[in-house]
């Protein structure tokens, strides 16, 4: 795909603004628009600016780069735009970013992101050989041919200390269920979803091909991903590059393990939980029920919904590389802080997440709002594991 | 950029803070055009205040620096009314989006000027389900204040145009004075305009040339649990005045809307008259439906009937669309897969609908369009807003120009018929003023001079001579 492929579509945006809202118009649901309120930061504004760039009415600039890169690729616009071309909107924004990459006009933080991933396989220049260190503590094995599942952890799960616990919790559940699985450890590489969403198509293809080759070499058939971002790219983008694997998100697998009885979840303590839908699981891949069903299968969990949920969920603000570039972070109107306030309104004890990016953003939001003593952010695996271990401990 | 202009930028930054002011090409590009067919005009700065105090400071700055200020709240008039004519500061009101107060007993809401129609609709549904406002069929991002100030009309059209539903205003004049008008001028309650000398009208249909409204009190109406509609196929548009007159004489409907368009692959234009009903009970709703169905049983002769068309006979998608709040009228923009349309809306006496219908057909055909109309009754037959729409392809200059030409002819026709073009673009405003009594024009000038001595408020609009 290239921007030119959308030349018969892009002018069809009327800039009517349906795409800024939730489906019932309660709130602005495009995170950067909600924060800046300039028309340029709305989905339709991006469409018009990208068209202006195609027509050479405006030149690539750092400000244009900020506008495009502040898009979290949350796909609320795809969900809410009423026009027939709505599916194309995020692809057009992605291609707009690709044009900026071509002209060398990306935000400096995005440039660092690409460079670090290219050189180190992760955004923080962490040593590759340490990528699997976290797993030793949990006794999580390395994948070997013949294992049923490759457990793909991703960059955040491998290096972020908080998210390592999330990765560990899911690993422990797999061990308890007796599944044959393993991680790639020091051989695992960035999945490329964010790189693609940020328009670095060459780097994306390099990463995807590298991963596909490795998966094939290790005779991988089934992949379970910790991150909805990895799930999205492996399920929807790898096949076009020859990577045809059966990909599931960990909440789908947990649901299956629990409903088949392979994983027994006894009653835990009574807790009120609200679930934050990750964009790449929900709007991008229509997975809304499985995470909720897993939570509801834990006796003692009372699931309460936030005002904005499912298709209307408000993005944590981390997608499209924003967890790293931080263009819309900071201040009380940052998406993560808005989202945790909304969670607090439900009276929940726990915000349940199902995505490493969401976990880091929500944790930041809780700190920013001084709510980290009042509400915990837990991943769904952690909640399930806690129910199991606290029952065992009596 | 001259140093004076830099001073404006720095001063705006001091007033509203960094992310909320821009002179970057991207914002200037965006605020120099709207989704209609007008030719872009340039803006110099964009600023987003969040309080009346900030609005006041910006206006005082503009007054001192002698630069124009153009308020934009939803930016969806399609006729370029919030695009600067003489450059200057575009003041985007959308950070001021608080719903300040709902008074349940006195049935009004006080909103800031950036509150969108969608937000008010959902807020009332969630928190005051017994109350509603008159929702226009503009996209939900249109603002309550912008729409109300320009004589909008909507789903409670039997109560008149939205401008008639204003209880009071807070407004910043061109010299920076802040006024409160209506009952709120002397009391904490924003419940009405009278009995006081009415100054509210000095800001209605003036397109921001007399002041910037920061708060507005809007009348709310009872919301009934049941809502439904009846559809009649219009065989002959000549019968519309009589039909609308009969319907409105009952005072039992909330809205009457006639739409005419040629669906894809249909041989000719289809015209449907829709009557919207609400009720407390099913019995009440059935009674009303029966009344209107019976009303048109023996109406007209063969070829001039209003044919009742049960909803079940029509595509469910169409029915769903008719029942939506707001209706998805923006779909018109994709008729030519072109991303745009513009219309001339004309406020007309009911009796003029048939002739306008016919003349509109001629204009449409002359410019290569099929007629595309909506006609909304306003009041109890006191007038209609007749919209003649012309979709265009934004990527095709010839198509845009055809729409502009058709709009120009439609304005002439509307004035010829004794109608009043609504929210007119500059060209339309000039045509209206050319027909106005010179004394009235000089009174208008005088009013503008008082409200805006420096001539900085959306200059170029309502400008004659
Ligand atoms: C698809 C479609 C359907 C529509 N259907 C309807 C309909 O059913 N009924 C209807 O009434 N309209 C309809 N409209 C017309 C129009 O969109 C609306 O009336 C509405 O959008 C105008 O409000 P706005 O907030 O967009 O105003 P804006 O465009 O922001 O402003 C309108 C004018 O008021 C001035 N202004 C804005 N804010 C202020 C302020 N705070 N103080 C002083 N002046 C101000 C502006 O400078 C401008 O001159 C429709 C439009 C579209 C695109
Ligand atoms: S993307 Fe769709 S909903 Fe958004 S402004 Fe454009 S046409 Fe309207
Ligand atoms: S993907 Fe999300 S952030 Fe990006 S333009 Fe669409 S709604 Fe806004």
Question: Can you walk me through this structure?
Answer:
The complex is a heterodimer of chains A (394) and B (465). Chain A has 394 residues and is α/β, with parallel strands linked by helices. Chain A has three domains: 3-106, no CATH class; 121-256, Rossmann fold, CATH 3.40.50.1860; 266-392, AF0625-like (Rossmann fold, 3-Layer(aba) Sandwich), CATH 3.40.50. Chain A contains 18 helices and eight strands. Chain A has helices at 31-36, 43-54, 62-69, 76-80, 89-102, 108-120, 133-136, 154-159, 161-177, 193-197, 201-217, 228-236, 250-259, 289-296, 322-325, 335-345, 356-368, 380-392, and strands at 149-152, 181-182, 222-225, 246-249, 271-275, 301-304, 350-353, 376-379. In chain A, the strands form two sheets. Chain A has a four-stranded parallel β-sheet with strand order 2-1-3-4. Chain A has a four-stranded parallel β-sheet with strand order 6-5-7-8, sandwiched between helices. Chain B has 465 residues and is an alpha+beta fold. Chain B has three domains: 4-92, Uridine Diphospho-n-acetylenolpyruvylglucosamine Reductase, domain 2, CATH 3.30.43.10; 99-222, Uridine Diphospho-n-acetylenolpyruvylglucosamine Reductase, domain 3, CATH 3.30.465.10; 226-424, FAD-linked oxidases, C-terminal domain (Vanillyl-alcohol Oxidase, Chain A, domain 3), CATH 3.40.462.10. Helices cover 30% and strands 23% of the residues of chain B. Chain B has helices at residues 3-16, 25-30, 52-65, 117-127, 144-149, 240-249, 282-295, 316-323, 353-366, 397-416, 426-434, 438-451, and strands at 21-22, 45-47, 69-72, 89-92, 99-103, 108-112, 131-132, 166-173, 178-182, 211-219, 221-222, 226-234, 255-261, 270-279, 306-308, 339-348, 373-378, 383-393, 420-422. In chain B, strands 15-12-14-13-17-18-16-19 form an eight-stranded antiparallel β-sheet. A five-stranded antiparallel β-sheet of chain B has the order 5-6-10-8-9. In chain B, helix 1 packs antiparallel against helix 3 (52-65), helix 9 (353-366) packs antiparallel against helix 10 and helix 10 (397-416) runs parallel beside helix 11 (426-434). The longest helix of chain B has 20 residues, at 397-416. Chain B starts with a helix and ends in a 14-residue tail after the last helix. The mean pLDDT of chain B is 96. The chains are: A alpha/beta (394), B alpha+beta (465). Bound molecules: flavin-adenine dinucleotide and iron/sulfur cluster (2 copies). Residues 13-19, 43-44, 47, 77, 81, 83, 89 of chain A line the site of one iron/sulfur cluster.
């Amino acid at each position: 795909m290239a921007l030119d492929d959308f030349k018969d579509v892009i002018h069809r945006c009327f800039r009517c603004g349906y795409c800024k809202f939730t489906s019932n118009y309660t709130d602005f649901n495009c995170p950067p628009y909600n924060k800046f309120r300039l028309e340029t930061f709305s989905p339709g504004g991006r469409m018009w600016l990208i068209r202006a760039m195609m027509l050479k009415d405006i030149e690539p600039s750092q400000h244009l780069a900020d506008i495009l890169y502040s898009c979290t690729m949350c796909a609320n616009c795809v969900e809410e735009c009423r026009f027939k071309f709505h599916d194309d909107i995020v692809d057009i924004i992605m291609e707009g970013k690709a044009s900026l990459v071509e002209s060398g006009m990306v935000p400096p933080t995005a440039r660092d992101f690409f460079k670090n991933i290219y050189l180190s396989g992760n955004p923080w220049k962490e040593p590759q050989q340490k990528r699997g260190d976290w797993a030793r503590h949990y006794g999580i094995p390395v994948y070997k041919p013949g294992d049923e599942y490759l457990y793909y952890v991703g960059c955040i799960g491998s290096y972020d200390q908080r998210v390592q616990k999330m990765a560990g919790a899911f690993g422990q559940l797999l061990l308890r269920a007796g599944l044959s699985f393993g991680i790639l450890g020091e051989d695992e590489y960035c999945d490329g979803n964010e790189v693609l969403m940020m328009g670095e198509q060459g780097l994306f293809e390099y990463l995807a091909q590298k991963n596909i080759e490795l998966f094939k070499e290790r005779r991988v058939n089934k992949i379970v991903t910790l991150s909805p971002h990895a799930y999205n790219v492996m399920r929807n983008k790898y096949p076009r590059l020859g990577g045809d694997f059966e990909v599931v998100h960990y909440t789908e697998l947990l649901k299956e393990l629990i409903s088949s009885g392979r994983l027994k979840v006894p009653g835990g303590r009574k807790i009120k939980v609200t679930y934050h839908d990750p964009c790449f699981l929900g709007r991008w891949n229509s997975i809304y029920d499985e995470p909720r069903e897993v939570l509801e299968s834990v006796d003692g969990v009372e699931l309460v919904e936030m005002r904005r949920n499912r298709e209307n969920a408000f993005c944590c603000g981390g997608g499209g590389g924003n967890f790293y570039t931080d263009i819309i972070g900071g201040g009380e109107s940052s998406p993560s802080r808005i989202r945790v306030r909304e969670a607090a309104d439900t009276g929940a004890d726990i915000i349940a997440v199902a995505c490493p990016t969401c976990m880091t953003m929500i944790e930041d939001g809780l700190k920013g709002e001084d709510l980290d003593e009042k509400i915990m952010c837990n991943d769904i695996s952690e909640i399930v594991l806690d129910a199991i271990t606290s029952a065992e401990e009596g | 950029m001259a140093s004076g202009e830099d001073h404006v930028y720095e001063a705006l930054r001091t007033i509203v803070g960094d992310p909320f002011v821009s002179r970057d090409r991207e914002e200037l590009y965006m605020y120099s055009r709207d989704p209609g067919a007008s030719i872009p005009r340039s803006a110099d700065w964009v600023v987003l205040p969040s309080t009346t105090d900030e609005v006041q400071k910006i206006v005082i700055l503009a007054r001192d620096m002698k630069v124009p200020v153009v308020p934009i709240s939803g930016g969806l008039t399609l006729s370029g009314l919030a695009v600067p004519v003489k450059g200057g500061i575009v003041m985007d009101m959308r950070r001021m989006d608080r719903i300040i107060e709902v008074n349940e007993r006195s049935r009004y809401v006080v909103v800031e000027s950036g509150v969108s129609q969608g937000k008010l609709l959902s807020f009332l549904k969630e928190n005051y389900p017994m109350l509603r406002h008159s929702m226009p069929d503009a996209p939900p991002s249109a603002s309550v204040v912008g729409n109300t100030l320009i004589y909008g009309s909507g789903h409670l059209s039997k109560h008149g145009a939205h401008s008639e539903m204003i209880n009071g205003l807070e407004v910043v004049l061109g010299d920076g004075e802040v006024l409160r008008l209506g009952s709120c001028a002397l009391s904490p309650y924003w419940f009405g305009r009278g009995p006081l000398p009415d100054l509210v009208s000095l800001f209605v249909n003036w397109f921001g040339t007399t002041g910037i409204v920061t708060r507005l009190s809007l009348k709310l109406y009872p919301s009934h649990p049941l809502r439904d509609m009846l559809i009649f196929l219009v065989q002959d548009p000549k019968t519309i005045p009589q039909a609308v007159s009969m319907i409105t004489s009952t005072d039992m409907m909330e809205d009457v809307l006639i739409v005419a368009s040629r669906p894809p692959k249909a041989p000719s234009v289809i015209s449907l008259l829709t009557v919207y009903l609400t009720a407390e009970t099913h019995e009440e709703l059935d009674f009303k439906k029966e009344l209107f169905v019976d009303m048109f049983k023996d109406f007209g002769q063969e070829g001039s009937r209003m044919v009742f068309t049960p909803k079940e006979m029509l595509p469910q998608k169409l029915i769903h669309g008719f029942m939506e709040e707001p209706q998805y009228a923006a779909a018109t923009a994709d008729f030519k897969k072109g991303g745009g349309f513009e219309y001339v809306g004309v406020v007309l006496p009911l009796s003029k609908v048939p002739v306008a219908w016919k003349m509109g057909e001629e204009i449409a055909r002359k410019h290569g369009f099929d007629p595309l109309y909506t006609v909304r009754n306003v009041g109890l037959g006191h007038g209609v807003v007749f919209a003649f729409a012309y979709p265009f392809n934004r990527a095709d200059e010839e198509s845009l120009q055809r729409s502009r030409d058709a709009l120009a002819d439609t304005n002439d026709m509307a004035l010829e018929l004794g109608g009043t073009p609504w929210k007119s673009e500059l060209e339309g405003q000039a045509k209206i003023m050319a027909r106005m009594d010179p004394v009235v024009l000089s009174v208008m000038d005088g009013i503008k001079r008082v409200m805006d001595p420096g001539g900085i408020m959306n200059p170029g609009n309502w400008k004659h001579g």
